[in-house]
Amino acid sequence: MHATQSLYEQLGGEEMVTKTVNIFYKKVLADPRLRPFFENMDMNRLESMQRAFLSTAFGGPGAYSGRDMRRAHTRLVALGMSDIHFDAVLGHLDGTLEELAVGKPLRDWAQALTESLRKDILGR
C-alpha cells in the first residue's frame, strides 16, 4: 500500500468497485428498513450511478456526472429517510468491504468519505 495511492487504487480499482456495488445492494435490498426506499427503482441504472459515484468519491478515474447528493436523495428524504437509514447503509458498506477482505484502515477511510455526505444526503 502506497500512501499516495487513492482509496480507489488501494481497494482494487474498477473490478473491486463493481463487486462492492453488487454485494452492497444485495445487502441493502435484503434489509427491511431500507428495501421500501428502492421499490419501483431501476436498479441497473442505480447500480451504474453508484459505481460511477464511488469511483469518483474514492479518487478513481472519470468524473461522476449525476445529480448532487442532496437532489439525488430528495425523494428518499420525502419518504422518511433519516439517520437510522443512513447508519444502516454505512453498516452495509462496511460489511460489504469486510466481506471483500478490505482491511480496517481502508474501510474506515470509506466510512469517513461516506459520512462526510450525511448532511447533503439527508437534506440538511
Description:
Heme binds at residue 73. One of its GO terms (molecular function) is heme binding. Keywords: Heme, Iron, Metal-binding, Oxygen transport, Transport. Belongs to the truncated hemoglobin family. Group I subfamily. Pfam families: Bac_globin. This protein has 124 residues and is mainly α. It has one domain: Orthogonal Bundle (Globin-like). Helix content is 65%, strand content 0%. The chain is built from eight helices and no strands. Helix 2 crosses helix 3 (43-57), helix 2 (13-30) crosses helix 6 and helix 6 runs antiparallel to helix 7 (104-115). It starts with 6 loop residues before the first helix and ends with a helix. The relative contact order is 0.16. The mean pLDDT is 89.
Summarize, please:
This protein is mainly alpha-helical and 124 residues long. It has helices at 7-11, 13-30, 43-57, 69-72, 74-78, 83-99, 104-115, 118-121. It is globular.
Q: What's the multimeric state?
A: single chain
CATH superfamily placement:
Globins
Q: If helices are DSSP runs of H or I spanning 4 or more residues, what is the number of helices? A: 8
Largest sheet: none
How do the SSEs run, as a string of H and E? HHHHHHHH
What is the helix fraction of residues, given as a range? 55-70%
CATH class assignment: Mainly Alpha
Give the end-to-end Cα distance, rounded to a whole number of Å.
36 Å
CATH topology: Globin-like
Decide which structural class fits the backbone: mainly alpha
Count structural domains: 1
Averaged pLDDT, please?
89
- DSSP strand count: 0
Architecture per CATH nomenclature, i.e. the level-2 architecture: Orthogonal Bundle
Unreliable spans:
none
Keywords: Heme, Iron, Metal-binding, Oxygen transport, Transport
InterPro entries: Globin-like_sf, Globin/Proto, Globin_bac-like_CS, Hemoglobin_trunc, Hemoglobin_trunc_I
GO molecular function: heme binding; metal ion binding; oxygen binding; oxygen carrier activity
Pfam family, one: Bac_globin
